[in-house]
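sry for the spam today, last one i promise. struct tokens for design, 322 residues
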């Protein structure tokens, strides 16, 4: 389906939980949200995905919070993978529980994973995430590679003065492994003075990240999706940049989102959307559900207001799913 600005919407991101076992300094430093907020059930997720697929969505990503803390995550993957028309099923995870689950998830129909990893150093990892879990995540990455959840992408949120001395180490990883390292610009979460101080202190732009990677001068360039991608000579993996701040990619945005609590959002930075869960509870028909989604797509804004002094509201990353 096309939105009013001519963009084809073929990608749905589903936040399956607001809960998380990490407390990343840039996302949820005080832990995660309201324990009373129960997420969509497997059946509800399946119904929403079915309706989206009927409107032309072919790619699904499960995210959160941390999707692997859901005990029924394998059931969710199995249910979504079985829907006719789902061509690509991916999941974004912090990797902590991946060693145990990678094989089961792959067997249930998961195609690929994005794993968040902001540092290759153990102590630093604990400082960023609040949990001493570098080894567990690294084992999880290995398990995902072994289970052929590919292409395997590693998301690195770039943080000035925290991990900016490791960008070259991450780039080097792509020369050793067929992994796709993507540097993500920090997004402002929360509107308080403290949140804006955090952003000013730690934000580093993609061009500054690039400046720390002289190797890229010899790399080939590919453009696909929101990431601009480079490959070092002879490297099996790639290096990409995701630049919500310095260069918004709204004109190529092909996605809608459903939050863990069942609200449909057409934009990560937009209003907290249509209440799909309410409709599901009231026994909405398949075609009325499709209409709800179609309306959300119609209302998709042309671009996010980021850059005009706007911040995503606190809690949104885990609720909407980053
Ligand atoms: N818990 C999973 C994880 O960390 O991969 C999935 C959810 S997390 C919200 C999804 C992605 O959003 C992660 O790659 C994370 O690094 C990124 N993220 C969270 N807060 C961010 C922020 N303030 N700016 C940029 N990226 C952020
Ligand atoms: Fe949890 Fe992911 Fe947010 Fe870190 S970025 S606190 S792992 S949801």
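last one done:
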């Amino acid at each position: 389906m096309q939105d009013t600005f001519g963009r084809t919407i073929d990608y749905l991101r589903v936040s399956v939980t607001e809960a998380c076992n990490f407390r990343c300094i840039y996302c949820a430093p005080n832990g995660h949200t309201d324990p009373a907020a129960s997420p969509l059930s497997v059946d509800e997720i399946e119904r929403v995905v079915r309706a989206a697929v009927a409107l032309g969505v072919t790619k699904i990503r499960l995210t959160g919070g941390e999707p692997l803390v859901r005990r029924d995550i394998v059931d969710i993957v199995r249910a979504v993978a079985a829907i006719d028309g789902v061509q690509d099923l991916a999941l974004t995870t912090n990797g902590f529980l991946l060693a145990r689950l990678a094989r089961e998830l792959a067997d249930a129909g998961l195609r690929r994973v994005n794993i968040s990893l902001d540092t290759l150093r153990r102590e630093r990892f604990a400082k960023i995430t609040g949990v001493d879990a570098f080894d567990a995540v690294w084992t999880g990455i290995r398990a995902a590679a072994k289970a052929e959840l590919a292409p395997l992408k590693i998301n690195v949120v770039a943080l000035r003065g925290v991990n900016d001395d490791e960008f070259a180490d991450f780039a080097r990883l792509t020369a050793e492994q067929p992994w796709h390292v993507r540097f993500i610009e920090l997004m402002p979460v929360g509107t308080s003075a403290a949140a804006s101080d955090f952003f000013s202190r730690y934000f580093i732009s993609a061009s500054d990240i690039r400046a720390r990677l002289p190797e890229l001068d010899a790399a080939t360039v590919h453009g696909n999706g929101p990431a601009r991608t480079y490959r070092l000579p002879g490297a099996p993996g790639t290096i990409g940049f995701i630049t919500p701040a310095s260069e918004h990619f709204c004109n190529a945005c092909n996605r809608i989102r459903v939050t863990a609590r069942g609200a449909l959002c057409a934009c990560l930075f937009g209003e907290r959307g249509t209440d799909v869960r309410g409709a599901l509870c009231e026994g909405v028909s398949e075609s009325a559900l499709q209409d709800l989604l179609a309306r959300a797509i119609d209302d998709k804004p042309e671009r996010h207001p980021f850059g005009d002094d706007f911040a995503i509201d606190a809690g949104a990353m885990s609720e909407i799913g980053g």
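The radius of gyration is 19 Å. ok im logging off now
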